[in-house]
Design goal:
mainly alpha, about 325 residues, about 75% helix
Amino acid sequence: FMYDPSVGPLKTIFNCGNSVLPVVLRRPDFWVFLLYNIVIYSCFNHGAWPSQGTALGKAAHLSWGDVQVVTALTTLFEVFYTNQCFDRYLGLHKATRDIFTVAQQIAFELRLHPGAHPEYARLSLRYTLAAILLFWEEVQPGIVAGTDLRHRLLSDDEFSALRSAGVGRPALLLRWAREVFDREAKALPLQPVVRISVIGKFELELRTMQTVAHTLEFPVPFQYYHFLCLMVSFCFVSWGFYTGTTAGHFAVPLFLVAEVIFMGMIHLASAMSDPFGDDAVDFPLQAWLMEAFDKCEAIMEHELGVESEKSWEATLSRERSLEA
């Protein structure tokens, strides 16, 4: 994700390891269109093209005005598609980060009101983190492959119960987390405003998960994408024919650059529409997951040595005016 805009465009274009350029150059259709342009250019400039004085030569001609119409329509379709995919990308990024942020808020509130039974808070948070883990495993299978994170968050009996439930396992785990908190709230009892606040966080977590799931289930319609591919292909055919029937030495390189731009934008937009995978623009989901879990564990378990009543009194008695 990170890059340095101060290095300038010339140095940036040669840093193409994580760009769409290697992906585009591996596509067979890229080379098919380029070969089409080279064949026409070679025939036109080596005497194998019909003379423009003949009827066939006049027919084998394409004006720049015709190419402009196709180019303008294709650009309009591609810009709209790219904008829609980028808006979807931003929305999924916000929802993804919100899932982890809400988990930390739940950990904070559970830690703040543990009552006389901190095991309730630990169990409720464990179920919450397990719900998040199972949700992301459904979105991106293998996200925690090679780790024992699932076994540390769920016992064999709990996992068997979830497996028998079939679909909706993250929601079921969040329900368990809420039920555990409800038992604690009734045992203390907690103030109603505290109970409402914590339960609201569980419900917000579930709604945010559903937002991600529903967004992934509703991509840009295939019919639009199919029509866009048709327009881009027709545009390449028009460009290849027009630039091929010129005598300029830069005809083929210009066609190559234009083909990379249009084909690269389609690939980039498609990758952003589903940012859970192995593409260069996909979210570092495993790193975010482990970071959020570490923060939740720290909030719940870390002790500063000043949290008892006497320690707080001693700390407050030593407090002086701020000198930040």
